[in-house]
Structures are given as C-alpha cells and as structure tokens.
Amino acid sequence: MSSSLFSASKSPSFQLRPYQADAIERLRFAVAAGKRPVLSLATGGGKTAVVAEIFRLARAKGKRVAFVVPLISIIAQTWNAFAAIGLEDDLSIIQGANHFDEWGNSRTDWRQPIQLCSIQTLAKRGFPEADIVVFDEAHIVHESHKKWMKEAPSGTVFIGLSATPWRKGMKEMFDELIVAETTKQLIEQGYLSKYRMFAPAHPDLSGVKTTAGDYNVADLGRAMNKSPLVADVVETWLKLGQGRPTLVFAVDCAHAEALQRQFNDAGVPSGYIDAHTPLEAREAILEALRIGELQVVCNIGVLTAGVDAPYVSCIVLARPTKSEMLYIQIVGRGLRIKPQGGDLIILDHSDTAMRLGLPDSIVHEDFVTGKEANAGERKKTEPLPKPCAACAFLKPPRTPICPNCGFESKRVSGVYCDEGELVEIGAAREKVSATHVTLKGAKFTRAEFYQQLKSYQELHGHKTGWTAHKYKEMMGNWPANHFPGLPGKPISPPVHSWLKSRQIAWANSKARDRAEPRADMDAFARETL
Q1: DSSP of 106-165
Q2: pLDDT at residue 94, as a whole number
C-alpha cells in the first residue's frame, strides 16, 4: 500500500509534539512496506492528536477513514477532539444508541468520510467503506476486528493504537510494533505528571488462585474485603491523599461498596461506579469529582480506559493484579498534567508495584507471546522497588536514601549471636511497614510495639528516652507525638527476643571496643536480660 494515503500535505492546524510527528513518519514507512503496525503511546501522550493528523492528511487525499473503539465512553470524547481541530463536517457516529447534535439532527451518516465506530455495533451492522481503519485500544480484541481485517478489500490500511499492546495474539493480527514514547520519557519531558508511590499495606494473597493469568476474582475479593485492609485504605488516604480528587480501584462490587461506605463514614464524600452504572450517571459522578462535590470515586475496573480525567491527582490501587496491562491502564488515569498543578500520589495497597515494578519501568519493544503476555508468569530479571521503612514510599531499585523522607536504609549483618549460636536476623525482624511491624510471624501496630517497649523500659528502670530510641532503631523514625501518653502493654516473646538480640549486639560491640573477652560480655548480656 502506498504511503500516499496520508502523506504530508501542509502543516496541521495544531502543533504536533516532536515524538508525535516522528510516530506519523514511522507509521508511513510501515504502511508503505505493506505492514499492519501498532502504535504504542503511553496514556496521556496524545494519541488522538496523532490520529486526527493522520485523518486530516488522508482527507486531503480524498480517502475515507474509520476510527473503531471498544468502549462507548470513548466515542463522545473523540468526537469533541476531532471537532476541535476542524473535522466536524466530515464526522459520523456508528453506534447502537443514536447520537444527536444540539439541533436534534442524527450524527449517524454512512456517507461521511470519517466514521467513529463502536466495534460491537459493527458486529451487527457490518463494516463501513474505509481506506484507513484505526483500532483504538487495540489490546482489547473483538472477533469483529479479525473478521474485518480478513474480509477487507486488498489495500485497506489497518493501524492499531494502544498504551499497553501486550496481549497474547496481537502478533497474529499485526506485524510491527512502533513505540512512540515511553511513560518515563514523557514524564522527563514534562508531558506527563510526576508521581510518588507508597506501599502502605501488604495483603496476604497466599490462598488466592490464578485464573486466566490473573488472580481469581472471587478469591481476591475475599482476601481484600477484610475490615483491617478496608480501614487501612481510608486511614492512609486521610494521611497522604486528602484533598486530592481520587479514583479507587477495587476488586468487586462488595469490595468497592465497602470502601465507599468507609470513606463516607469518615466524612469523605464518595461516589461509586460499576459496569452497570449508566454512561450519563458516570459522567455526572466524574463531574462531581472534578468540581469537588465528591472527593473519592470507587470503581471496579470500569475507569481503566476511555477516561480523560486530568484533575485526578490520587490513585488508590486496592485491586492486586498480575497483569501489566491492567496495572498501567489504572495508573494512566492519573498521569495527565494537572490543571491545578502538582504531582500524582499512588497508594498501592496491593503490592502490585513490588511484583511488577514501578509504572514507568515497564516497557516492551516488541509484541509478547504466550505466557510472556502476563508479567505474573514471567521471570523478573530487573530489580524491583522496595518500600521505605520509615514512610512506605516506594523507592526505585538501588536507592538507599528515600527521596520522600530522607531515611537511609543500611545493610544489616545477616546473623547475630544468641548464647553462642548463630541466629538469622530475618527470624527476629521480618517486616516493617508504615503502620505495622512483624516479628517472628507476630504482627503489631506501631503503637502496640511502642507500648511493649515502654513496659520493658519501666520494668528495667531505663530512662524515658530509651523507649523512643529503641522504637527508632526498629522503625527508622521517631514515635508519634501521642505515643508517650499510651499505657504500657505486656511484653510478647517476639519483642523480648528482638530486645535480647539488640542487647547482645550492643554487648559484643563494647567487647570489640574494649578488647574484653567475648564470653564475659555474652554472660553480661544474659544477666541483664
């Protein structure tokens, strides 16, 4: 097929970004070579501008074009985008529900040279005549996509668009992947918002099965819809996300409703959207979020595509997933540059980033096949981010000093001496999060840990500052201002064991400093405990 279908004629009526112009040039070469390409462009990278320019150039050559979407919600916003650059007179909508302009005229006209089509409607009505067909969200594959590509007249150009073209089977439909610009590059160039990501909770997913490459939804719903986890979502948002228009991504209806109820009970006006929410109601709820009548909208995966919400500045990921596509589509809802300025806060209550990586680190230069289509089944070769022990900020790999709070993590020796035996530190100190510490499998809130330290301090007659310093030694930061007023609690065996390990380590360090016999210092440590 000749590249003359959309070769340059004159400058567009809007200014293309450099990578957008380069993407059109690369598409032109691919089409000239007889290929069916997919253009990969991160959410918020301006794919509508790229398509509009292709269509403008094609129309200048007298060609007919079709833009095919898998979601009804994309139709209206695409119409508005195309109309804004002068293509309105050539537009028609092919969709089950008729669209009308402000004068009551139908927007469906098969004679028009540019057709905005719902793929589900085309399955029933047939395919319009077109020289160029663009499949939006090409990773969402419908049988009618394949049928059209098979039955189309020779010479018809097919182009796919997707921020996440990583679904199994795409390589059978398309034969070249063009990566226009990555999320990381768009953030660095200032076209997408910077973000900060926190991992405040670590759910237990050990009993959740895998179905079709991702977590089984029924199992996942039971694992995530527990009162402590639901409450933690709200408590964390009040600390880190309050005042930010927020989208919460839940597992299922019961989970989303529980989250909405908790937010409302906490005095946070919250909305709810699921697959059964009518389009008009969805638009009204999102508008309420935009103007501040709502602060949070809980949903079950229906806001992962076709939602342009640049005012959203907080994403709550309460839905664990093994799918890179779902993960990146969710995060993409908040990466557009904010009219109000500022960055994006991502609160990951699912450990997804700790399994798949930070959202701007996931890049594929070619189509994936088989099990490669799901990151949960693919062996990771790159290091993964880790949460800061002090503030739960997800640090990029190999980042010892937290960019958020400045806390410096230091490598700790893997063993300590316990009455002449070597004991793994991991057995004594297993995990510290923003809200809890886990010792030998026992989980304590930070306040409970402080209260046990206070009891030990009172029992052994240590100075009051001892409790705060021991707390900081474990947690990485000083205790909250209200902690000193809390009463002591009985000392549990795991906490006592940890204190014993610290005392032994202190005694051994003194032995090295004074060159005293090791056995004597071990005996001293045992006597003091």
Answers
A1: B---TTSSEEEEEHHHHHHH-PPP-SEEEETTTTS--HHHHHHHHHSPTT-EEEEEES--
A2: 87
